[in-house]
UniProtKB/TrEMBL annotation:
This is peptide-methionine (R)-S-oxide reductase. It comes from Rhodococcoides corynebacterioides. Its EC number is 1.8.4.12. It comes from the Bacteria. It catalyses: L-methionyl-[protein] + [thioredoxin]-disulfide + H2O = L-methionyl-(R)-S-oxide-[protein] + [thioredoxin]-dithiol. Keywords: Oxidoreductase. InterPro entries: Met_Sox_Rdtase_MsrB (IPR028427), Met_Sox_Rdtase_MsrB_dom (IPR002579), Mss4-like_sf (IPR011057). Pfam families: SelR. The keyword Oxidoreductase applies.
Amino acid sequence: MSSAPEKKPTFELSDDEWRTKLTAAEYAVLRKAGTERPFVGEYTDTTTEGVYKCRACDAELFRSTEKFESHCGWPSFFDPKDTDAVILKVDRSMGMKRTEVLCSNCHSHLGHVFEGEGYPTPTDQRYCINSISLTLEPKG
């Protein structure tokens, strides 16, 4: 899995503006790379058809057709909506090497992607995304 080149965010706000725009919980995850508790997120078990967008900037990130049940406690997708919708970044926090997923539009933290773990998906990847990082625009 390769990382996209680091690019300047299209949607930028100051830290004070982010704190005003987002709730404290949203800010902790989206801007400070926090993680919501498993199995409590709004979209963990959602099967509604539509497009998942970045809660911080409204950029389209994932489609419901790429969402699958991985039983990990967070919404899981096997591919982003477009290859340039997200940025992948090496994350060495928590004493391990993982791949962080960021919104390419505003560089907000979305979650992590895991690869090669035998997921029953066309890409053998699991984009494990915090519900609080997303909004769902239902189809139609």
